[in-house]
Amino acid sequence: MELISIPLPSPALGTNRVLPFLRFGTPGVGPKAYIQASLHADELPGMLVAHHLRNMLSELEQQGQLLGEVILVPAANPIGLAQTLLGTSQGRFDLRTGQNFNRLFHSLSENVLARVRSQLTADADLNKTLIRAAIRTCLMEQISTDELSAQRLELMRMAADADVVLDLHCDCESVLHIYTGTPLWERVAPLAGLLKAHVALLETNSGDDPFDEACSRIWWDIAAQVGDEFPIPLACLSVTVELRGFIDVNHDTAQQDATALIDFLRLQGLINGALSQTIPPACEPTPLAGCIPLTAPTAGLVVYLRELGDTVKAGDPLIDLIDPVSGTVQQLLAPVDGVYFARENRRYVSPGTRLSKVAGREAIRKGSLLSA
């Protein structure tokens, strides 16, 4: 195990931060996996999973069981970790720019294709090598002068040429769910099973360039552009894993999640040895465009009426939104048939607050599909 720190540009006189990461295995030897936690710095379950992964990967490395390189970033957002307002962590948005820390990553598809199109061949493995080299070159040519853009760039440089990318997040309150590219589902399904995910949300372009999609979409974008002319493998299997809710930070759960991730790395050829468990069946995937948020029409006290993970029908009561002064109760109903999987953790909200999410089977929404 090697601990490395990448310096970030100073945001102010007398202040400097670094982005630390751990490397297991040898660069360039075998397949590569990249795992990061807490890109939204106030989402902490992934940080604890990374702690357990560190110990497990270190032991596997000492035993000679690693067959490739694993990069682990236990705290992927030192900028957000430093942001506290009136005692409350502010890790989702950069306070200087207002930007979401998990948006606006580098969209490389066009640039990479322009560099490699004349070199593509009938050999899929050679094309993979050419495209990965172009990805690295594109990212090395990028210049960043401010701290936030530098952090984004360094994370992409570590991850974009990996075979497997796992981005560990959580929701406010939720059951475990994942986001991944539609073309990747067949290969991601075992991970959903191992993690016992309740929901898997699929999309090819969710909008706003989140980290996982910035890493993997290059491959299906190029494949779509060249069509049948050249074989382009989907060489980056990238997934966002939502590890339940903010307060789900405990050793037993984190150990189980870390074990599931190690098993998945075994399936991907990065670690030797037998799986710790039989792979459970995966949940039925649903389109991200079928994930329908339920929004508060007014301010009020929130009372949830159903349990997370419940299967609901359109029109089922999900929430009582109460004005305790007037005595008014607005009952908010499930917008579609589906799985009720996530909700806001505050119990008093302002108008426009997204209160709950239901994963439906039909793609309904268009445009940018992610929350702010």
UniProtKB/TrEMBL annotation:
EC id? 3.5.1.-
Q: Which Pfam families does this UniProt record tie to the protein?
A: AstE_AspA_cat (PF24827)
What keywords are annotated for this sequence in UniProt?
Hydrolase, Metal-binding, Zinc
Cofactor(s) essential for the protein: Zn(2+)
Q: Which residues form the Succinylglutamate desuccinylase/Aspartoacylase catalytic domain?
A: 30-266
The source's superkingdom equals Bacteria
- Please give one Gene Ontology molecular function term for this protein: hydrolase activity
InterPro entries in the record? AstE_AspA_cat, N-alpha-Ac-DABA_deacetylase
The enzyme's first-digit EC class, named in words, is: hydrolase
Q: Which PANTHER family match?
A: BLL3975 PROTEIN
- What is the protein's given name? Succinylglutamate desuccinylase/aspartoacylase family protein
Report the source organism. Answer: Undibacterium danionis
Its organism's taxonomic lineage begins at:
Bacteria, Pseudomonadati, Pseudomonadota, Betaproteobacteria, Burkholderiales
